TrEMBL record:
<dbReference type="Pfam" id="PF13578">
    <property type="entry name" value="Methyltransf_24"/>
</dbReference>
<keyword id="KW-0808">Transferase</keyword>
<keyword id="KW-0489">Methyltransferase</keyword>
<dbReference type="InterPro" id="IPR029063">
    <property type="entry name" value="SAM-dependent_MTases_sf"/>
</dbReference>
<dbReference type="GO" id="GO:0032259">
    <property type="term" value="P:methylation"/>
</dbReference>
<dbReference type="GO" id="GO:0008168">
    <property type="term" value="F:methyltransferase activity"/>
</dbReference>
<protein>
    <submittedName>
        <fullName>Class I SAM-dependent methyltransferase</fullName>
        <ecNumber>2.1.1.-</ecNumber>
    </submittedName>
</protein>
Length: 238
């Protein structure tokens, strides 16, 4: 709540109309959070956190509308952790997603927290209960993996960005994801309220605000709350 209040006090003026539209006008899926929690319990997932469930009333209608006129959707997720957001995507859009995820989990040099020893196998046990027609996991940091994917010519229709919370890493993620995203595709940028990263220094909000300031002519703002959803309207010269 404190993060949200600080962010509202410094709201990006370009996002203010979309924030008001999202919070006050756009229909919300009020019962979906509880329904998804029941689904997770019934399927026996091994989730230890539910950090993003408060986003479900806002993101669920947005994603259903996005997917309504589409068949197969090429989906990229940065920051998979235990797989709870993947489970949500599978629940919302069953059998629609061809999935690629990027996460380093445990890395002795760059991500050495011991808890990640248990998170990675828990992730794969959870994913085994999902129903994606195609799935691949790339173990590594998105700032290293995304350039390889761009060089390989990969393209995506829907991208969920929830990796590092430092402004530097988020800026790199957004720059590459903007190039990997097809015209008409959507990027959902998580944790927009975070103005300072966990390790200090500027956070997600600063990166998202500055990215949109530079590339606003190439994206429509679909929603703003704790997340920002952008729809690509034209290719970015590069």
């Amino acid at each position: 709540m404190a993060d949200a209040l600080r962010a509202l006090a410094n709201i990006n003026g370009r996002f203010a109309p979309s924030l008001a539209q999202t919070m006050l006008v756009r229909p919300k899926a009020e019962g979906d959070g509880a329904a998804f929690a029941e689904h997770c319990e019934a399927r026996g997932f091994e989730f230890t956190t539910a950090w993003a469930d408060n986003n479900i009333p806002y993101v669920a209608p947005l994603l259903r509308d996005f997917a309504a006129q589409r068949g197969s959707i090429r989906y990229l997720e940065i920051g998979a952790y235990e797989g709870r957001n993947l489970a949500l995507m599978d629940w919302l859009l069953p059998a629609k997603l061809e999935v690629t995820v990027i996460d380093p989990w445990f890395d002795p040099d760059l991500n050495p927290e011991e808890k990640y020893h248990a998170v990675e196998p828990r992730f794969f046990r959870n994913v085994a209960k999902l129903r994606f027609p195609k799935f691949q996991a790339r173990k590594g940091f998105s700032t290293y993996e995304l350039p390889k994917m761009l060089e390989a010519g990969e393209r995506y229709d829907l991208i969920y960005v929830d990796g590092s919370h430092t402004a530097w890493a988020v800026t790199v993620d957004l720059a590459y994801c903007a190039a990997l995203l097809s015209v008409g595709g959507m990027m959902v940028l998580d944790d927009y309220w975070h103005q300072e990263s966990e390790i200090g220094g500027p956070g997600v909000k600063q990166a998202v605000d500055r990215f949109h300031g530079v590339f606003k002519d190439y994206f429509d703002v679909a929603a703003v709350y704790r997340q920002v959803a952008l729809v690509k309207t034209a290719e970015i010269p590069r």
